[in-house]
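Task 17 of the worksheet. Students: predict the tertiary structure of the chain below and write it out as structure tokens. Keep your answer in the requested format; marks are given for formatting as well as content.
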Amino acid sequence: MFQPVCNGRNGVFRKTSDLPFTTDTSAWFLPWMVMLMVFFAGLTTAGALSLNSMLGRWSRSISGSLTVQILPLEENGRINIKKTQLETDEVLSVLRKTEGVASANVLTDSQLKDLLRPWLGDSFLLDDLPMPRLIDVRLIPDTHVDLDKLKTVLAERAPNASLDVHKLWLGKLVKLAQTLSLLASTLLALVIATTSVIVIYVTCSGLAVHRPIIELLHLIGAHDDYIARQYARRIALLSFLGAAVGFGFVLPVIFMVSSLAEGIRGGLLSEAEFDVWSWR
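Model answer:
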């Protein structure tokens, strides 16, 4: 039976190869290609997971909440706080009696300022703005709410109130995010397929280059599985080196983008999260 050659320099703990891999530099472009593929795959995966988390938050917002806006009533150029409060109470009464509504709460002035601060900044003008009353309405899950009837009742009992159905405008953003998520998944599949083709091509090229030596090894008793194991170890080592470098490059980029997104409060990017739970 054919036995692999082992010299004194390699020692008993180091596996040797009967193929001249050390002088063959044709396969060294494999780690570079794998590094690039892992880098792109990491970015694509992070983007897809972030979009999925964003989709989940938006979907919950669509199905679970409404907003009612009450414009402040003005008389003689001044806001009539009493009448505005009476209309707000009337709207709350209607909402809390509506089937499918879990809760209806008026946002405080500080909460309204927090909503406007990302867009207007920390300006003293916020205290002078005639801000409307906003009512946050939470719906009971899996319960149908007749929005047309609710709009009609609000128009009769509170003319200055308007119902903001998030589904009308947020649904378009959800469709856009779903398209981007599908595109990211397609790109990830293409990256994986391209990496597989590269590995197969490098292996076939190596077999063609070392064909005379392989035939010689066959003549002296080497089996195909013995030669295949040497190629498998070679390709696995080069691929691991490239993947490790690519993973090391992509991690700082992902966390840098994640940190920048976390710094945006009140914007769309702040809804995209990329954490350990996203991989589950």
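Marker's comment: The chain has two domains: 26-60+171-279, 72-159. The chain has seven helices and six strands.
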